[in-house]
Amino acid sequence: MTNWSLLARTTGVFVLAVTCAACSGDAAPDASSGSGNADLAVTDTSATPAAPIAPEGPRGPASCGALSLVEGTTMSGNDLGDCMVDYLAFAGSGASQMTSETASSRMVWRMRDAYEAYAELDSGVRMAVTGGAAWVDFGDTGWVKVDRTTPGMEVGFGIVEAWREMTAPEMMRGMIAAAPVWEVGPTRDVELPDGTSRNLAKVSAAAPFNWGGATLYAMTFWMEEPGRMILQEATAGAAGFTATSTTHYTQWGGEVDIPDPAS
Asked: Domains in the chain, start-ordered, CATH in brackets?
């Protein structure tokens, strides 16, 4: 069980954990993740038969193809959760930036043999899950392997374990499923934290819901297509602490840098 009281007393880690719970890699890799073709040389192929064009690959998993972003549509939390978790494996990696009234953070993740993630808080705290182990750097300690049995590691263990639990794909699936009904709102231009705007559909929990000892008073995903989330807005509370956060998903697919503290 997540130690919510501990999270509420730390520098924004509660906000980070709740916000990153939806960091599902819920999009296909951007076209910019691949190599461009603008500078390819043009050659004479008049004497060479044209090669057959390979069929375009799927834009996402089948669980997302079954959902609609038409305004007025509703979907179950189970269906939406399946779609967003399936996109984690489909994208393979991603990055996001979270801001709230009290904290900000940057996070990257990838799926290889196992889920790996790295986060930096504006306080200087860094956390990593890689190679089957969790690590924390409190800004001036250097990387320390998180071990419950290490004297003095109780707080660090609680912080990193809470983050690790909350960002795990299956935890994210459970959180979304905890809201029985999600409603599709209007599609409109949405201004993003980087100053750009995108035409996105609004998908919101139909009512506040409880999950893991916290109350999610409001949660909205702004999507380009089912599962492809660009912006998340959430207001959550636990242990007398309430926070509103915005998460901008800045990258889907491609390379991400996750340090290896063990090296």
From this structure: 4-25+60-252 (2.50.20)
* Structure confidence at residue 107 (pLDDT): 93
> What's the rounded Cα separation, in Å, for the pair 242 and 114?
32
- Identify the CA nearest to 90 among candidates 118, 110, 66: 110
52 phi and psi angles, rounded to 5 deg: -65, 145
223-251 residue pLDDT tens: 999 998 999 999 999 888 899 999 999 99
- Angle at which helix 169-177 crosses helix 154-167, to 10 degrees, equals 70
CA angle 75, 81, 82 (to 5 degrees): 100
The three-state secondary structure class of 160 is helix
pLDDT in tens, 87-115: 878 899 999 999 988 889 999 999 877 88
The whole-angstrom separation of Cα 210 and Cα 131 is 32
In whole angstroms, what is the distance from residue 156 CA to residue 162 CA?
A: 10
- What are φ and ψ of residue 43, in 5° steps? -120, 160
